[in-house]
Amino acid sequence: MKLLVAALESELVAFSEPLDGFDRLVTGPGKLKATYGLTRALDAGAYDEIVVVGTAGALDETIGSGVHEIHWAFQHDVINEEGVRGEHVSMPQRIELGAGDVSIATGDSFIDDAEAVELILSLGGRLVDMESYAYAWVAAQFGVPIRIWKAVSDNAKGGANITWEEAVTDCSHRLREHMREVYGV
C-alpha cells in the first residue's frame, strides 16, 4: 500500500475517487502540521511508498509550469548558531530524494518579494513551499521511500493573473494526470 499525501484538500480536487493501492492523507499546511500528520499516519500503518502531491511557487525563472519531481529539499527559514541561513542547528541541511537539480525550499511563510526570492535562490532553491522538507524528513525517520511532485501554482515574486482557487485546481488536474501516467491509476 502507498500513501498519497497533500497539505490541502484543494490540492486533491482532481483526485475525487479513491486510487487503487493508495491511502490518502491531508496534513494541513506548514512544517509542523506536515510533520505531525505524516508521523501519525506512518505510526498507524505500514506503507511501501509515500507520494506527495501539491503546489509550489517558482523562484527560478527557467523552471517550467509542469509537474516537477523534487530531488532535494531544504529549509530556507532556519539559521544555525553561526548565523548561517538555510542551516538548522540539529537537522540535516538538505535531504536528497533523487538524482537531479529540482530543489525545493521549505519555510513557514509565503514568499512574495524579490529580496526573499533572491536570498532563497542564493541557497539553491528553485521552487518554494511550506511542507516538502518536513515530509522528506519524516519519511527518512521511518525508512519509507518518498516521491514529491509539485505543480507550479505561481511565481513567488507575485504578479499572479489568476485566483488561488483557479491555480490550485489547475495544478491538481496536472498532478492527477501525472499520477495516471506514472502509476496507471
UniProtKB/TrEMBL annotation:
- Pfam families, per database record: PNP_UDP_1 (PF01048)
Q: Gene3D superfamilies in the record, alphabetically?
A: Nucleoside phosphorylase domain
Read off the InterPro entries from this record.
Nucleoside_phosphorylase_d, Nucleoside_phosphorylase_sf
Lineage at the top is:
Bacteria, Bacillati, Actinomycetota, Actinomycetes, Micrococcales
Protein name (Swiss-Prot/TrEMBL): Nucleoside phosphorylase
| Origin superkingdom | Bacteria
Q: Which residues form the Nucleoside phosphorylase domain?
A: 103-180
Q: Which SUPFAM superfamilies match?
A: Purine and uridine phosphorylases
Which range is the signal sequence, renumbered to this chain? none
